[in-house]
Design goal:
The protein is of the alpha+beta class. It has a single domain, classed as Glutamine Phosphoribosylpyrophosphate, subunit 1, domain 1, CATH 3.60.20.10. It has 5 helices and 16 strands. The strands form 3 sheets. An 8-stranded antiparallel β-sheet has the order 1-14-10-13-2-5-3-4, covered by helices on one side. It has a 6-stranded antiparallel β-sheet with strand order 6-7-8-9-15-16, covered by helices on one side. Strand 8 and strand 9 form a beta hairpin. Helix 3 crosses helix 4. The longest helix is centred in the middle third of the chain and has 17 residues. It starts with a strand and ends in a 13-residue tail after the last helix. 44% of the residues are buried.
Length: 296
């Protein structure tokens, strides 16, 4: 893991942006989303749709729109209405595969073991055509939703009708994710309402805010907050995002192939997977395939 202090005011961003939050107690994401949504047309051009999911135990509120998060009335609601949740996943899209339609807007949702599962992806998977049995079928035409359906199908094939532990889910994701990453950039956030799984082959960053809480200032808009005025000693919040959101906090960058499980606002488990494609590209840079999802 690499600690970095961000002091820039503007970035060129990847083609999609991810935002996740995992908390010890229900917390709203309005501060983070206010900065994050600026990247949907003001500080960057991720304007091909957005979505956000808020878990409430086993089920979640899912909002998606094929409009930019800058102009969408739904995004304006999220920026101003403090919906509290322990697990949140958001996504702003710059389309690489699939038309700009509602069914192609992340996050995606499916039911498994009596829980709703939410998935959002940044990346571009080429020639990824896994066989699916039909238990989980994409509604849209993105590589991202196809990867989500494939991950869920692998969970069912491994564990059947009996819900596994978080550690068992983590172990299978640790096995399957680097295989999918052979087809291209594969950064994702996944949650079933109990915890938040995350994986990166290129760019993700995370931070944990806990007592004593401090002041933070957003990068993308002139907004700041003193978290100590709105929190208790029991609060703890982990935020995961493609690029850091604040300019005065220390964010931790994921290593290539790193998977992190967050629960109760802290890191529960980590693993660094081996992605053969990344190893080949490190040995021979001429093999690196730069796609729209990797342009910074």
């Amino acid at each position: 893991m690499h600690n970095i202090l961000i002091n820039k005011t503007l970035y060129e961003y990847t083609m999609c942006q991810l935002l996740g939050m995992n908390c010890a107690a229900p917390t709203d994401i309005t501060f983070s989303f206010r900065g994050f949504s600026q990247r949907a047309g003001i500080t960057s051009d991720h304007s091909d749709g957005f979505g956000i999911a808020f878990f409430e135990d086993k089920a979640c509120r899912l909002f998606v729109d094929n409009q930019s998060a800058v102009v969408s009335p739904i995004a304006e609601l999220v920026r101003n209405y403090p919906i509290k949740s322990r697990n949140v996943i958001a996504h702003i899209r710059k389309a690489t595969q699939g038309k700009i339609t509602l069914e192609n807007s992340h996050p995606f949702i499916r039911e498994l073991w009596g829980r709703q599962w939410i998935f959002a992806h940044n990346g571009d998977l080429h020639n990824f055509h896994p066989h699916l049995s039909g238990r989980f079928t994409p509604v849209g035409s993105t590589d991202s939703e196809l990867a989500f359906c494939y991950l869920l199908e692998q969970l069912v094939l491994k564990f059947g009708y009996f819900e596994p532990s978080l550690n068992d889910v983590f172990a299978l994701l640790e096995e399957i994710s680097p295989k999918i990453a052979e087809y291209g950039t594969f950064n994702f956030c996944l949650s079933n309402g109990q915890a938040l799984f995350s994986y990166a082959t290129t760019k993700l960053h995370w931070i944990v805010r806990e007592y004593p809480f401090k002041y933070a200032r957003l990068i993308d808009i002139d907004v700041d907050i003193d978290f100590s005025q709105f929190t208790t000693q029991e609060d703890r919040v982990a935020v995961i995002t493609t690029e850091p959101l604040t300019q005065n906090e220390v964010w931790t960058a994921y290593k290539p192939g790193e998977m992190i499980l967050f629960k109760d606002g802290k890191v529960l488990k980590t693993a660094t997977t081996h992605v053969e494609r990344l190893a080949r590209e490190a040995a021979d840079p001429s093999l690196v395939r730069i796609t729209k999802a990797d342009q910074y």
